[in-house]
Amino acid sequence: YIADYYNHRIKRLTLTGACNGDISSAGNSPHAIAVGPASGGGRIYVGLRARINIFSATSLALISSVSSSNINFPWGMATNASGTKLIIGDYYKNNLREFSIGPGIPNGISYSGMSPHTSYSSSNGYFRRPTDAVYDSSGNIFATDLYNHRLQKFNSSFAYQSKVGSYSSTGFRYPYGMGIDSGNYVWVTDYYNHSVRKYDTSGGAPVQVSA
Hints:
Layout: E1 2-4, E2 9-13, E3 19-23, E4 32-35, E5 43-47, E6 51-56, E7 62-67, E8 74-79, E9 85-90, E10 95-101, E11 109-114, E12 130-135, E13 141-145, E14 150-154, E15 160-164, E16 175-180, E17 185-190, E18 195-200, E19 208-210
């Protein structure tokens, strides 16, 4: 599933790259997208400037559209493994926002909390424009911190745990996007270094860097 920002649509591709679905009315300039597991209703969550649109992952039909003052440009987001939570890297609010999600929740989504800091800062636990966030299998949260050039780790209660990176020629330079695989490895795109970095969830040095 791909959010097509300037064409205001969502594309669904097969694993061989063929298009097999298109949401032509995804909303104005969709940026963030997350696809929940079938156990959570099989839904697509699309982040707009201050709105989340929810679609069926099978029929691609719109399920609900929720405006929220608790978000201001979700750059990246992801669901947890059970499909009960949605974490958002909120670019302009400079923190992480979490929502409860699922078929039994009114409108499919409900605001549930945020990381404690909103100031634009390089201190631990703060952000200078977060661009993405993911959960590991234990519920810990990892988030890219764009202008601090680092990856930060929080526990499920948003308590700061650790960080990797700071601005240098050998560290991150503008980490924009990330994902986590079934082996609990975190993959981070390193924009200015033209590389992808792979980390385990201990938050230490990268186990692999692909230039």
